Amino acid sequence: MFGGVGFLLHGNMLVGVWKESLIVRLGPDSSDEALGEAHVAPFDITGKPMKGWVLVQPQGVADDAQLKSWIDRATKFVSTLPRK
């Protein structure tokens, strides 16, 4: 998906890799909040940002604890979605 690797939870996209960055599905409220954090940008590869998603630059997932934190945050949101 998006020309990279994606990971699903119950059939819903959770996180993925696009180029060298992590894309994370957080939902609209949490993604807006995350945009204020270091190394986080809107997920925009087409000229139109995807609502509910963020792009975490490599510096934001430099160690296992940072990566786990992003996956946990995505899991919190995606686990509320209906299974596909």
Strand numbers in spatial order across the main sheet:
1-2-3-5-4
Count of alpha/pi helices: 2
Question: Largest sheet, described in full?
Answer: 5 strands, antiparallel
Form type = globular
How many β-strands, per DSSP?
5
Quick recap:
The chain is an alpha+beta fold and 84 residues long. The protein has 2 helices and 5 strands. A hairpin with a 2-residue loop joins strand 1 and strand 2.
Written description of the protein model:
By secondary structure, the chain is α+β, with helices and mostly antiparallel strands. Helices cover 26% and strands 29% of the residues. It has helices at 28-34, 64-78, and strands at 5-9, 12-18, 21-25, 40-42, 53-56. It has a five-stranded antiparallel sheet with strand order 1-2-3-5-4, covered by helices on one side. The two termini are 16 Å apart.
